[in-house]
Amino acid sequence: MSAKNIHSIPYSVLDLATIAQDRTAADAFHDSLKVAQHAEALGYERYWFAEHHNSASVGSAATSILIGYIAQGTKTMRVGSGGIMLPNHAPLIIAEQFGTLASLYPDRIDLGLGRAPGTDQLTAAAIRGENMRVNDFPDDVLKLQRYLSSENSSAKVRAIPGEGLDIPIWILGSSLDSARLAAAMGLRYAFASHFSPHYFLQAIDLYRRLFKPSAQLDSPYVMTCVNVVAADSDAEANYLITSLLQLFMGVVTGKTKPLQRPVNDMRSIWDEEMEAAVLSRLSYSFVGSADKIKATLQSFVDRTAVDEIMITSHIFDLQARLRSQEIFAESMKGIVKSKR
């Protein structure tokens, strides 16, 4: 295989500004900046925030504000949304918000879009009430694209700032519907395999088969998000991941609480049924020492041919989280994919 037929895999970070037990949202924001600055120094490609609401562990509800905070505190890394839940917002408002961000931080802002509300139905109703129309998502993406285009300069409703700016748009998803939409619109596709792994392989295959080149993108581009808990030993990583396991217990039961401290034995917390429910959502997770993670990374890339890997790491201790980032970045060295 010639060198021109292989290329390295970019790696990135998804953050939820996770609020830990006995800490505040302000603590989470300051920690996110430290994590982002560390990621930039380690060569991570981009740093995204996910929009969620009404969760005791998630501080990234005001997603656009946090993107600006991180962009201001970094220099070169791309910053964006993973994603903005578009049914929660008027497309014009998002065009203006991201137009403002792109004006302040040129060529550094990404706009990832999702169709889910990022919360429960009661909270979703409180956000936009009867105006929320999830089925309008494809049309809302088109409206957003129009507001951001230079061709919209003669329209009666314009996004200023935003109009004419080159802001990369991604479609986020965890289903075959999102794959079809990203392919039909010729946009980049990011799959949420970190919490919804079941349709991952089907969705990215469908996206690639149906992809139609567009002015934004001439060939399919797939990014997947995975859970990563890396440490200096497998035993330490297995201990640290118990915070994530407890977090997903809240996802399964609908009873969220701040990120909990790790525990020595999950058997004191869950039963077999809960264990199975949680682990079924976490099948795309990389947990362990550098040797263990690197051994599984290349086979994952060979199997999926992803163009980029985004990691999310719900680790209670900040220093352990920073160390996990270091180990993963080191593990990514030499990980390559063959061009299809």
Would you mind describing this structure in some detail?
With 340 residues, the protein is an alpha/beta fold. The protein has one domain (8-232, 285-338): Luciferase-like domain (TIM Barrel), CATH 3.20.20.30. The chain is built from 12 helices and 11 strands. The chain has helices at 25-42, 63-73, 91-104, 121-128, 137-148, 176-185, 200-210, 234-240, 242-253, 272-279, 290-304, 318-332; strands at residues 6-8, 11-15, 46-49, 78-85, 109-114, 169-173, 188-191, 222-230, 285-288, 308-312, 336-338. The strands form 2 sheets. The protein has an 8-stranded parallel beta barrel with strand order 2-3-4-5-6-7-8-10, surrounded by 8 helices. Strands 1-11 form a two-stranded antiparallel sheet. The radius of gyration is 19 Å and the shape is globular. The two termini are 13 Å apart.
Overview in brief:
The protein is built from twelve helices and eleven strands.
CATH architecture call: Alpha-Beta Barrel
Terminal residue distance? 13 Å
Q: Which bin fits the share of residues in helices?
A: 40-55%
Spans of 5+ residues with little confidence (pLDDT < 50)? 1-5
State the helix count.
12
Q: What average pLDDT do the residues reach? A: 93
